[in-house]
Amino acid sequence: MKKNISNIYRLALLCSIFAITIFNFSCSKDPIREQIVDPPDTTPTPQTYENGFFVVNEGNYNWGNASVTYIENKSNTLIQDIFKKSNNRSLGDVAESMKIARNLGYLVINNSNRIEVVSLKDFKSVSTITGLNSPRFLEIVDSNKAYVTNLQKNVSIIDLQTNTISGTIPINGWTENMIMYDKYMLVTSIGIFSEPSSNRRSQILVIDTRTDAIVDSIQTGKEPIGIVFDKKQKVWVLCSGGFDNFEVPTLIRINPELRLVEKTFTFPDLTEVPSRLCINPTNDTIYFLKNGVFQMPVSASALPVEPLVSPAGRLFYGLAIHPVTGHIYVSDAKDYVQNGTVYQYNATGALIRQNTVGRIPGAFCFTKNSTK
Amino acid sequence: MPLLIAAQKLRDTLQLKEFEIKSTYASDNNCFKRVKFDSGFLVNHLNSDLSTILSQNSTIFIKSYGNGTLATPSFRGTTAQHTQVEWNGINLNSPMLGQVDLSHIPVSQFDGLEIYYGAAGISNTSGAFGGVINLVTNPDWNNRLDFLVMQSIASFNTYTTNVNVVAGTSSFQSHTKFNYSASSNKFPYYNDFLQETVHQQSASFSLFGMSEELFWKLKDKHLLSLKFRYNQDDQNLPPTASNYSTNHVEKLNSKDLFAVLDYKLVEKKYNLLIRAGFANQKMHYRLDSTFDEFHQYDQWINKNRFTYTGIRNLSIKAGIDFTYDQVMSDGYDGMKTRITTSFYTEINYNIGKKVKTSLVIRDDLINGTFLPLVPALGFEFLPWNKTDLSFTLNLARNGRYPTLNDLFWTIGGNPDLKPEKNYSVELGCNFRQKSKEGKFSIEMNLTGYYSWIYQMITWLPASSNSTLWQPENIDEVWARGLEAGANFKWEIHHFTFSFDNNYNFCHSTYQKASSTYDHKIGKQLIYTPVHTLNSTLSIERWKFYLNYNFCYVSGRFTAKDNLSYMPGYTLSNIILGKNIGLNKFVLSLQIQINNLFDLDYQSLADRPMPGINYAFTLKFALPSIYRQ
To answer: Structure pTM?
Structure first.
C-alpha cells in the first residue's frame, strides 16, 4: 500500500514536469509590449483626418504611451491612437501639443525630444525633427518658419520647408507659450527649470522674428504659463505663481505696443492655481481652468468667482476654445492612470457631447473644417 | 586529501546542506506562513542579486526597471512599500521612500533568506501588509579556515568578483566578504519607437560591497555578534525606449552602511536579546542639468526581546524597540526626524499535541502618538500524529505609518496623512511526506488569503493645481488570493532530482473611486499580476548539477481602468555546473543561460530588458583547514 502511494507521487511529479514543459513551449514568443484596449473605434480608418479635431493625450512621463485621438463630430467618428495606427509605432513619451501648418500636423513630444510631422490626410509621418531640449509648444512665424519653446536652453527655430532645425535662440531656462504680435513673437519665459521660484526670472520675451533676436522683455508674475490676444490688441498673461506656491497667481494685461503691464488681477488663493488660458473667436472673452472652467469678459473689472462649468469630481486638465464656433473643449485626466474623457460645451456652458479618449488628454488641435 | 572529500569540503565551505531548496520554516510558531531559502540554495546564485532569485523562486512580484536597475518587490496584491526587507533584523527600507531596491543587494552578502508572508511579519514590524524578506547571516561554529574566490564573466561586459574568508573556532567565528561587480550593460534590444535594434545607453553600473561579521559564544550561554555591511553603488540610469538618446545623463550614487551588535543570553527557562543597530545611507541623484539632489538618512535602532519558556507548552515573549530616523534631503524643508517606540508581546501556547496557538500584539508610538493596536492571532491544527499534515488559520490587523516623503516632500508632502489600515485572514494547509527509505520526499502547501487595506496612500494630481501631485489616504484595496507550493525530491541510481513549484493567484482590486467619473472600482491594481508560477528542476550526478528554472508572470494592467496591460510572459533560465576536486583545492565551473528562448520582453512598459544572455563563473575554494 505504502509503495503504491509513493508511486502515485512519482507519477504526479512526472506529470507536473510534463505539464510545465508543455506550458512553457505553448506560451507566445511575441515581443512583450504594452497593449492598449482602446474604447472601440466608431469606423474603420476614415478617408482623411482633415475634417475633425485632435485630442493630444500626453501619456505618463517615462511610460511612452502618448497618443492622439481623432474626433469628427459631423460623422460621429472617433479613432483612438491614430498615430500608431498609421505609422505602426507609438507616438512617444509625453505629447505636449499639436499645431497645424501648411496642412501638416506638428506633434511636439516633450520627453522624446522630438517633433513628429504628419500629413493631415492619413496621419502618416512625413518627417521627424530631433535634437530639441524638452520641447513644449510650436508657434508659426510665417510659411517658412516656426519657433519651438523648450524646457531648457533655448527656443528652436524650425524651417517649415525642410522640417529641420535651422537655428536656436539661446535663453537661460524654460520657455512656454507664444503669440505673434506684428513682427514680434512674445514668449513666456519661466526661468531655470531646476530652480525654485524665488530664483526664477519670470518675463515675456520679445523676439524680433526678422532677426531672431531678443529685443525686449516684460516682467510678469511667477510662472507665466498662458498668453492670448484680445480684440483691443491687448495681451493677457496668466501667471500660476510658481510650482512651489511662491506667490498668489495673477492674470495680467499688457500693452504690447508700450510693452507695459497695464492691469493685474490677483487670484484669491495661493494654492488654487489657474491654468490653460484661452480666448474665444471674437477675442472678447477669456477662459481658464481653476478646478472648474472659468469665463471672463475682457472688459470685466474683476476675476470671475463662480465657474461656468464646475468640475463635480472631475480633474480638468486641458482646455481649448474652438476657433470658429467658440465651443469649450475640456478634458478630464482623472487620476492620470486611466483613460481620460473630453467634454464639449457650448459658450454658455451646456454640455453637447463627451468622448472617452487616451491617457492624460492635455491639448487639442482643430482642423479648418471641424466647425460643428 | 582525497578528491571526493575535498569536494565534500567545498560544500561545507559553502554551508551547502541538503539538496532541499526550501522548507517551511520551523520556528517557535507555525501559525503564520514562513518560507526559508538556505545557503545551499543560494550557492549557485552568488553572482546574482536578490531580485533575480526572488523572481525566479518565489511568487513575490519584482517590478524591474531594466537590467541591473531599480527592482522593487511586492506580494499578495500590495505594493513595494508594504514589503519590508531586513538584514539581520535591521530594516533596509529607506524611511524616505519606504521601499528597497533589490537589484543592488548581492546574494553573496547573506547566507539565508526568510520570507514571512502577511501577518507573519508582525513579529518583526508593523506595516508590512505583504510581508517581510529577511536576509540572515549565521555562524555554524565549525573549527576552520576557508577561502573562496569567485569570478564571473557575463554578457554585456558584466564582471562579478567575490572573495569570502571564513575563519573560526567553536566559540569564535569571523566571516569576511568582499564583492565587486561592474557592467557596461549595453545590451541590444529592439526599440519599437525608433524601429531598429539599438544598444541600451547609460545603463552601466558598478557596485562594491564588503561585510564583516564576528560571532562569539561563551559557555553556550552568551552569544555576541557584531555585523556590518557597507555598499557603494554607482549607477547610470538608462532612458526609456521612447526617450532613447545617446547623451542621456541620469545618475544615482549611493553609499550605505549598516551595523548591528547583538547580545543574546540563553538560559534554561528564558533568553534575552539586546540589539543595537545603526544605518546610514547617502544618495546623490542627477538628471541632465535639471536635477541634482542629495539625500541622507541616519537610523539608530535598539531592540530588546525577552523570552520565557519556563512553563510547559507556553512561551511568552516581550519586547520593546526604539528607532530614531533622521533625514537630510534636498527634497525636504529642513531636517526631519522620527522617533518610533514599539511595544511587542507574543504568546505561544500549545493545547495538547494537536493545537498550537499564537497571539502577537504590537503597538507603535510614533513621535508621541500611539498608532492603532496591531494584533495577530494564529492557530495551527495537526489532526494526525503519523501524517505530517497541518492546517493553519490566522487573523490580523495591521497599520502602516506614512513614509517621510509622503509627509514632508516639498512640494506635495501631506503632513495630515493618516496611517493605512489592513485587516487580513489567512487559511493554510501544509503536508510533508518522506518515503520509508528517505529517497523520495514531497512537500506541499496551500494558502488562501483575504485582506482589506483602508486609507491606502496614493499620490494623485491635486484638484486645485493640476501640476501638483499629493499623497492622500484615498484608496481602498481588497486583495485575495491563493498560494500553492509543491516540492519533490527523488534520489534514484545516484541521481538526485528535485522539482520545486510555486504558484500564486492574486486578485487585488480597487474598491473605492475618487469620483463617479473614476472607472477603477473592482479593477485589478496596476502592475499586479493575477497569476505567477515558477518551477525549478534540478538534477545532480557525478558532481554535475543542472538547474532549469522557468517562471511565468501573467499580464499586468498598466491602467487603473484596466484598459491597457503588459502581456504575460515566460522566461527560462539554465545553470549547468561541475565541482572538480584539484589536489587541495576545489574548482567549480558554472555556465548560466538567462532568458534561454531569447524572449523580447518588457516587465514595465517602455523599459527594455535583455534577450538571451550568458554568465560563466569560476569558483576556486580552499576547503576547510581543520585545526583540531
So the answer is: 0.88
